[in-house]
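re: ur question from yesterday

yeah so i grabbed the chain u mentioned. its 70 aa long if i counted rite. heres the sequnce exactly as i have it in my notes:
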Amino acid sequence: MKIEKNIAFPMNYAEIAREMEDGDSVLCESKNKACLLGQGIRNLLSKDYKPVTRKQKDGIQYRVWKLKKK
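ran it thru and got these C-alpha cells back, copy pasting raw so excuse formatting
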C-alpha cells in the first residue's frame, strides 16, 4: 500500500453547482453525471436557478447550464 499526499479530493456536484454562476455550463461525461449536477443546481438553488441540459452531438456527453429563473 502506498501513501499519497497532496491529492485533491474531487468536488461533489453540490459544490460544483454552488461555484457556478448564471449562464455557466459544465460538460458532463454521461447522462447520469448530468442528472446529478442538475439535481445539485435544483436542490441547492431552487428558488433562483434552474438546470438546463442538452445532449451533445457525439451522443455521449451532456452539457448542463445554470440559468436564473424568470
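noticed a couple things. Residues 13-68 form one domain. also Helices lie at 13-19, 31-45.
anyway ttyl
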